[in-house]
From TrEMBL:
Pfam families: MDD_C, MVD-like_N. InterPro entries: GHMP_kinase_C_sf, Mev_decarb, Mev_diP_decarb, MVD-like_N, Mvd1_C, Ribosomal_Su5_D2-typ_SF, Ribsml_uS5_D2-typ_fold_subgr. Residues 199-330 form the Mvd1 C-terminal domain. Keywords: ATP-binding, Isomerase, Lipid biosynthesis, Lipid metabolism, Lyase, Nucleotide-binding. NCBIfam families: mevDPdecarb. It is an enzyme of class 4 (lyase). This is diphosphomevalonate decarboxylase.
Length: 350
């Protein structure tokens, strides 16, 4: 796989003088959702999750060490990062500094091509790209699994964007501490000869009112439906692995759709309720149900936002996209295929 080739060219010791690196990563969409942490600090999830990395919406991040700077400087799409976004990136750089033993501050320039904060997994591609660029710039030579473990600390779903195609993120075991940290990482998941596409209907690209971090905390703390969903999600994951191996896209879609709707049910039952789905989301869900009645393999999944992603066969993707465009006028619709994992750009070798 391309990302493994790219990562494996890093030789131990060879990277120590490299003070600049640029990495690219793509978002992933979970077919079995991550919703709920058992350790906030280490970002340890309560359940395993499974995703497909997309070939669209890359995030490109350049990290450059500045020996003379007293603070990290971070630009997000050309504008200086502030507040929570800056705090999370600096906290992540602190982890990389701690591991590398290098104290320098960094200049980070990150460019997202996906709307930020709209439930389109910008934090997944963002922290996967940052993890690879920062560890390389600081001279750390992590393999993909260790990189995934580290990316998890920035944003849980980022652990999966280290890998291309389908990836499973293991919840691991233990309450926290070093053992909990070690056991929770993502890795590629075996799949048969599927030819899937994910049609992304962006019904609203604005930032969400409640962050996924806050919403999942509230759900775990207050929703009576959380426990039952987490238990059924374990069964969904086992069934999903079988469906992927058998290359049974109808089964994959059916399991993904019920898992996502269940996750939204847990939020609706939180106190106070969290509702990400908008009227346009439900209109798209109706269109997906109609496509199925017409014999098209099409199943929906939704994250912490109103946008709907529809899993279908690659040969049907354009038809599905045009049905969704007609169903939700004003939305923008993108067709994604399975994409690559996080990788370095050539600049790192100069
Ligand atoms: C609904 O990975 O953004 O997209 O770990 O708090 O940063 P933090 O959360 P994040 O949550 C993603 C939740 C989800 C489901 C998923 O991607 O599995």
């Amino acid at each position: 796989m391309a990302e493994q080739q790219t990562l494996s060219v890093l030789e131990p010791g060879a990277a120590t003088d490299r003070a600049v690196a640029t990495a690219v990563a793509q978002p992933n969409i979970a077919l079995i959702k991550y919703w709920g942490k058992r350790d906030e600090e280490l970002v340890l999830p309560r359940t395993d999750s499974l995703s497909m990395t997309l070939d669209i919406f890359p995030t490109t991040t350049r990290v450059h060490l500045d020996r003379t700077a007293l603070h990290d400087r971070v630009a997000l799409n050309g504008a200086s990062a502030t507040g929570e976004a800056l705090r999370r990136i600096v906290a992540f750089l602190d982890l990389v500094r701690e591991r590398s033993g290098r104290p320098e501050r960094a200049v980070v320039d990150t460019r997202n091509t996906v709307p930020t904060g709209a439930g389109l997994a910008s934090s997944a591609s963002g922290f996967a790209a940052l993890a690879l660029a920062a560890t390389t710039a600081y001279g750390l030579d992590l393999g993909p699994v260790a990189l995934s473990r580290l990316a998890r600390r920035g944003s849980g779903s980022a652990s999966r964007s280290v890998f291309g195609g389908f990836a499973v993120w293991h919840a691991g075991h233990g309450a926290g501490g070093p053992d909990g940290d070690l056991a929770s990482y993502a890795e590629p998941v075996p799949a048969g000869d599927l030819d899937p596409a994910l049609v992304v209907a962006v019904v609203n690209a604005g930032p969400k009112d409640v962050s996924s971090r806050a919403a999942m905390r509230r759900t775990v703390d207050t929703s009576p439906l959380y426990g039952p969903w987490a238990a059924s999600s374990r069964d969904d994951l086992a069934a999903m692995r079988t469906a992927l191996l058998r290359a049974d896209l109808d089964a994959v879609g059916e399991i993904a759709e019920r898992n996502a709707l269940g996750m939204h049910a847990t939020m609706l039952a939180a106190r106070p309720a969290v509702r990400y789905l908008a009227p346009a989301s439900l209109t798209v869900l109706d269109a997906v149900a109609r496509l199925r009645r017409d014999g098209v393999c099409a199943y929906a999944t939704m994250d912490a936002g109103p946008n709907v992603k529809v899993l279908c066969r690659r040969v049907d993707a354009e038809r599905v996209a045009s049905v969704l465009r007609g169903a939700a006028p004003g939305s923008t619709v993108h067709v994604a295929l399975p994409g690559p994992g996080a990788r370095l750009l050539d600049e790192a070798w100069r």
